[in-house]
Write a structure and sequence with these properties.
The protein contains twelve helices and nine strands. It is α/β, with parallel strands linked by helices. Strands 1, 2, 3, 4, 5, 6, 7, 8 and 9 form a nine-stranded mixed sheet that branches. Helix 10 links the parallel strand 6 and strand 7.
């Protein structure tokens, strides 16, 4: 692997609380009016650091961006206004042909969210993301592909390698892939830790490299040394931590609140 460039100074220029105008291609234009976002979602900004993350990934308002498995649209709320005027956002969601009722409901709720606020989401393009099928034509020729905290699910479905292959196909030559993922310690079994929501960085990098990507840069602002979920063998995995706090006792909830959110890797890959 080529030597990884350290891009932390760029990333640190943008604080988690800073408005998305900081991403305006060096200009002071505002891309986001947060009035369409719930208070609960905005409170996650402190921990998910979306503006700092997108700045690190180099997302520009003129880019074509593919958001992989957008779930309920937490990041879509930020990306859609940013890309509305000059760029394009493609939400690559679960296909309605999926046998999973949960995934069907997720897709339906996401589309309802978009339909209920066309002023914000009217220019978002829907596409299917199915690693077992061909890449949806609407998700091709992209500048940037983004995936947030979802690789463990792809690993659990034995779809991780196929997914990275699709990410590569979606991108122009030289395009970039931004990954945020709960990070397991090195030396653990990726198949086992994926069931708890985590993957080792070396595993993700190896799968990406095999799919035609080079690791271009890494940031550390999502690291949390207090996260010992994998080391301590916590049964509920990452879902024991905030914001889920999926544990039985109030004592455990207080314990994991003090830990905070998961230790996460933040990786920027470039298509060869």
């Amino acid at each position: 692997m080529k030597k990884t460039k350290l891009m932390l100074p760029l990333a640190l220029l943008v604080s988690a609380a800073m408005p998305l105008s900081a991403l305006a291609d060096g200009h002071g234009k505002h891309h986001v009016d947060n009035k369409h976002r719930s208070d609960a979602n905005q409170q996650r900004d402190e921990f998910r650091k979306p503006y700092q993350t997108l700045a690190f990934f180099g997302v520009k308002s003129s880019d074509k961006v593919i958001e992989i498995m957008p779930g309920g649209g937490w990041y879509t709320e930020i990306l859609a206004p940013m890309l509305k005027e000059k760029g394009e956002l493609v939400a690559a969601h679960y296909p309605m042909s999926t046998p999973s009722e949960y995934r069907k409901r997720s897709r339906v709720k996401f589309e309802e969210k978009l339909a209920d606020n066309k002023g914000v989401y009217g220019n978002v393009t829907m596409a299917d993301f199915d690693p077992k099928a061909a890449v949806d034509a609407k998700a091709m020729n992209a500048d940037v592909v983004l995936t947030f905290r979802g690789l463990h699910g792809l690993q659990n479905g034995n779809d991780l390698a196929a997914s990275f292959s699709q990410f590569n196909q979606m991108l122009k030559k030289g395009g970039t892939l931004g990954v945020v993922q709960h990070q397991a310690p090195e030396g653990v079994d990726a198949v086992a830790t994926a069931k708890k929501g985590y993957l080792p960085k070396s595993h993700v990098v190896a799968v990406a490299k095999a799919a035609g990507f080079d690791l271009d840069a890494e940031a550390y602002f999502h690291n949390n040394s207090l996260d010992r979920i994998i080391v301590d063998g916590v049964e509920r995995g990452v879902w024991a931590l905030p914001p889920s706090l999926n544990v039985e006792s109030d004592r455990d909830k207080e314990k994991f609140k003090k830990v905070g959110e998961s230790n996460r890797m933040t990786l920027l890959f470039k298509k060869r």
